[in-house]
Design a protein that fits this description.
This protein is an alpha+beta fold and 428 residues long. The chain contains 15 helices and 16 strands. 37% of the residues lie in helices and 21% in strands. The longest helix has 18 residues. The chain starts with 15 loop residues before the first helix and ends with a helix.
Length: 428
C-alpha cells in the first residue's frame, strides 16, 4: 500500500499542524478586527458552478466526477462561486452590505511547484453590496493589517493593483467585441511568465489583430498611470478610480504596501474593476494572494446586478515566507507540565495535580504508565515540557509534590495546594 499522500495533497503532523492553526487564527483575528462574519460553504459543489465558456484554467483543473446519482459534481477549486451561490439562494433573508469571510480547503489539478499544491486552504474575504472604492480600500487594509500582525512589513510584501476597466476600454477602442475580453484577459495574465512575444503569438493564433496586441502591450509595459495614459494617448474612465484609491490609501496607512501595475490583469474572467495581488518582495516573485471586483458574477446565477469585491489568500506561499523568515511562533517558553505518579498507590494524587493544572489552563499530560522516573524526565525533555511534576510516596504522605522546572534546572517540593501558582509563576 502507498504510504505517502496522493500527489499534491498534504499531511500535517505536530508541530506542523500547530503552525497551520496559528496562521488560521491570525486570519480570523484580522477578519474580526474589520467586522467580517464567518461562513462555511459546501466542499462538494455542482460542476457547472465552475465551467465557464471563456476557457479559464480553473475549468481545466477541476477535480470533477459523476456521483452515484448521475450528477456532475466537483471538489471546489475556489470559494467565490460558492459565496455567490449562497447569497443568491438567501437573498431575501440578507441585509446588505455583507462582510463575509471563510477559511476553506480548495482543490485544483494543476502543475505542481514550490509554493503551489493541488490542495490548499484559502482565506476569502468579500464585501457584497457596496459599489464604491471604499470596499476595495477596506480589503486592502485587511491585507496590510494581516501582514503586519505576522511580522511582515512593506519591504517584505508589495500589493500591486490595477483596474480591469482600463483594459476593457483599451479593447473596446481597438474594436474587439466584448465577448472576447475574457479569453484575451486569460492570455495576457500569463505575460510575466511567458513574455510579450509569446503573448503576441498566442493572441495572433486566436485571431486577435496585431494592432490590438500592440496597444495592449504598450500600456502594460508602462511604469505608472501617467505613463499608461501617455502610451494610450488618452485617459481611460477607470483611471479616476485608480487615483481615488491612491489618494485615500494614506488615511489607512497602507500606501507603502501599494504599487500601481498596469500589467496586472488577473486570469479569472469574472473580474470587472479593481484587481490586486500581493507579492513576496524578496525578489522571488511569488504571488501570495489576489482578488478584485466582480460586479457581474451574481447575474450568472440569475440574480440582480450586485456589486461585489473580495480576495482569496492561500496558505502555501505565506507559510513558506513565514518559515523562511523565522516568523512562526516558538513554543519554547510555553508552560506545559508532565505529571507522573511513582506507582499506582500515588495515582490519585497525580491525577488531582493534573486536574488542577488543566483547570488553570496549563497544557498538561498525565503519564499513566508508572515507568521509571529517569524515562519520565527524558520524555519530558524530548517533547518540550517545561515542568515535570512527580507524586512520590514520601511527597504524598506529606501533602507535597516534587516539581522540576526543566528550563531553569531547579527542583523542589511544594505543597499540593501551591502547585498551580508555582508552575505558572516559573518557580520550581
Amino acid at each position: 500500500m502507498e504510504l505517502q499522500p496522493v500527489k499534491g495533497m498534504r499531511d500535517f503532523a505536530p508541530p506542523d499542524l500547530g503552525r497551520r492553526l496559528w496562521l488560521f487564527a491570525r486570519f480570523r483575528e484580522t477578519a474580526r478586527r474589520f467586522n467580517f462574519h464567518e461562513y462555511e460553504p459546501a466542499l462538494l459543489e455542482h460542476e457547472e458552478l465552475y465551467v465557464r465558456k471563456e476557457g479559464d484554467e480553473i475549468t481545466e483543473q477541476l477535480y470533477g466526477f459523476q456521483d452515484k446519482g448521475g450528477r456532475r459534481v466537483a471538489l471546489r477549486p475556489e470559494l467565490t462561486p460558492s459565496l455567490v451561490r449562497m447569497i443568491a439562494s438567501r437573498r431575501g433573508e440578507l441585509a446588505f452590505p455583507l462582510r463575509w469571510f471563510t477559511i476553506g480547503q480548495c482543490f485544483r489539478y494543476e502543475k505542481m511547484q514550490r509554493g503551489r499544491k493541488r490542495e490548499h486552504v484559502q482565506w476569502n474575504m468579500d464585501i457584497v453590496g457596496e459599489p464604491g472604492i471604499g470596499a476595495e480600500l477596506e480589503l486592502l487594509a485587511t491585507l496590510a493589517d494581516f501582514f503586519r500582525s505576522v511580522g511582515l512589513a512593506e519591504k517584505d510584501v508589495s500589493i500591486r493593483f490595477n483596474n480591469r476597466g482600463i483594459l476593457s476600454e483599451v479593447l473596446t477602442r481597438a474594436g474587439l467585441p466584448e465577448e472576447r475580453f475574457a479569453e484575451v484577459s486569460v492570455v495576457i495574465d500569463k505575460r510575466e511568465k511567458i513574455g510579450d512575444a509569446a503573448v503576441a503569438d498566442t493572441l495572433a493564433q486566436k485571431g486577435i489583430a496585431s494592432e490590438v496586441t500592440d496597444r495592449i502591450l504598450a500600456f502594460m509595459n508602462a511604469a505608472s498611470l501617467e505613463e499608461c495614459e501617455g502610451a494610450l494617448g488618452y485617459t481611460p474612465a477607470a483611471a479616476g478610480e485608480v487615483r481615488e484609491l491612491q489618494a485615500r490609501a494614506a488615511a489607512y496607512g497602507i500606501e507603502g504596501f501599494l504599487k500601481y501595475s498596469p500589467a496586472l490583469v488577473r486570469g479569472l474572467s469574472y473580474y470587472t474593476g479593481t484587481v490586486f495581488e500581493a507579492f513576496d518582495a524578496s525578489g522571488q516573485g511569488r504571488a501570495i494572494c489576489g482578488g478584485g471586483r466582480y460586479d457581474r458574477l451574481m447575474e450568472t446565477f440569475g440574480g440582480p446586478p450586485t456589486p461585489m469585491v473580495g480576495f482569496g489568500f492561500g496558505d502555501v506561499v505565506i507559510s513558506l515566507m513565514l518559515e523562511e523568515r523565522g516568523l512562526f511562533p516558538s513554543h519554547d517558553n510555553e508552560v506545559a507540565a508532565l505529571v507522573a505518579a511513582f506507582s499506582a498507590e500515588e495515582s490519585s494524587a497525580a491525577t488531582l495535580a493534573a486536574r488542577a493544572l488543566r483547570e488553570a489552563g496549563v497544557r498538561t499530560e498525565l503519564d499513566v504508565s508508572f515507568q521509571k522516573l529517569k524515562k519520565v524526565f527524558a520524555r519530558a525533555s524530548r517533547q518540550g515540557f517545561s515542568h515535570v511534576v512527580i507524586a512520590g510516596p514520601e511527597e504524598v504522605r506529606e501533602g507535597m509534590l516534587a516539581v522540576k522546572d526543566l528550563r531553569a534546572g531547579v527542583e523542589e517540593k511544594v505543597p499540593a495546594g501551591e502547585l498551580v501558582r508555582v508552575v505558572i509563576s516559573g518557580r520550581g
